User: Fold this.
Amino acid sequence: MSPSRPRIVAGNWKMHGSRALLRALVPAVQQGLPAAGRCQVVFCPPAVYLGELAGLLQHPRCAVGGQDVSAHVSGAYTGELAAAMLLESGCRYAIVGHSERRRYHGESSELVAAKATAALSAGLLPIICIGETLADRESGRTWAVLSAQLTAVAELLQQPRASEIVLAYEPVWAIGTGRTATPEQAQDVHAQVRNWLQEQASAIGKPMLAGQLPILYGGSVKADNAAALMAQPDVDGALVGGASLQADEFIAICRSAD
Ligand code: 13P
Assistant:
C-alpha cells in the first residue's frame, strides 16, 4: 500500500445476513476497530438495511455503501435505486460492476461505466469492479479481458470528481472459492492497472490521478491472508465477501489495512 493513497476495506454482504446480523455485527466491528487508523471501513449490506445501518454508525472511520446503483437519475425503472436515494440513505460509496452483476444480470462494461458516472455525479464514490474468469486466465487472456472492462472506465477519468473513483480487482475464480490470488498475482495485475491509469491519466492531462486512485483486491480475502495481500505496493485495501459477515474476521482484515 502506498502511504499517500486512501486505504479502504469494504464488506460486501451480497444477499446474505439479516436485520439481526446487522444489529449484532456492526456494533461489534465498531467496538473492535481502533479509533485511529489508516483505512476507511465500509459496510455494504442489502439495500433494505442501509437506512438502519446509517443509524448504527458511530465510528469515525466507518461508512455505508450500496451494492449497486442505477445508471438513471430517476424514472420508471422498477426495482432500481438511484444514486441520490443511496446518498439520502446515508451511503458514501456504491459498488458497481461486480462480477455477479455482470454475470447474472448481463451488465456490460458500458452500463457499469454509466452507473459509475451516475454515482460520481450524485456525490457517491463508485467502487468499480473488474475481474477475469479462470478460463480467461488459463488461456492467457487476463489483461485482454481487464483492459476491455477498463476501456469504458477511461472516460470517467475526465469527470471533475475523478479522484474519488475506487477500483477493485476481483478475479472471478477467487470469489467465494477459498482460492485467493497470491500476493504476487494480485500485485502483478494491480501494477498493470496502475500503468494503464498512468497512460490514460497522462493522455488527458491529469497525470497525478494514477497515483491517487485506490485499487482494492477482492476474492477470498480472510484474516489470515489479508496482511500479505495488503503488503503489496499497489494493493490499497480489500473488497471482502464471506469474511465480512464475521466480526472477528472482518476486524482482523481492517487492522491489516491500518
Ligand atoms: P469472497 O470474499 O466471499 O470471496 O467474495 C469476494 C467478493 O465478491 C466481494 O465483492
Q: What stands out?
A: DSSP finds eleven helices and eight strands in the chain. The pocket of 1,3-dihydroxyacetonephosphate is lined by residues 12, 98, 170, 175-176, 218-221, 239-243 (CB under 6 Å). The mean pLDDT is 96.
